[in-house]
Amino acid sequence: MEAPTLEDRRLVDALRAGDEPTFERLVHDYGPGMLRVARMFVSSRAIAEDVVQDAWIGVLKGIDRFEGRSSLKTWIYRILTNTAKTRAAREGRSIPFSALAAPDEEGGVDPDRFLGDDSRFPGHWAAPPRRWDVQPEGRLLAAETLALIEREIEKLPQNQAIVVTMRDVEGFDAEDVRNTLDISETNQRVLLHRARSRLRRALEEYMG
Prior knowledge:
By secondary structure, the protein is mainly α. The chain has helices spanning 6-16, 20-41, 45-62, 72-90, 138-155, 158-169, 174-181, 185-207.
């Protein structure tokens, strides 16, 4: 789990002192990502915005109880996801992270393309897909590709979309995602693997 940095401690002290510029900076830095994650739990952007606003209220009310067991960002996102889960349950949209799809789930990638459990890096690509970013047109397609990834994430099952967004878009490590979402190591790994497989397949088809 990512530990708090000296900058985190400075930010926490500033928040506890009621420093508004510090709070505004955090809202600016983390707000867009928080909205992306919240949007996956609830039915509309407007409700997701309410969730984010409630989460920030929770941050301000709870900052005196921040114990430094994780980074400040992870702590803030834990408040966000708990708030989003409560709102989702109220909407009847609880996300069953424990309910994993069948191994032959449609839309995945051929299992033979991944290393087995007896290898040094189980679950990694045995034969990596063709990289698009080293092709001559790669840089020109970067923005287009990011837009494609965003669209494909929206098509994923909710639990997969949340995990891959937190890991690959927001940059959380595996332990922080597990603790934030309260899921097991196995669930986190399977959900991330299936989400990445679908996204990789979409990229390969797009790149020909």
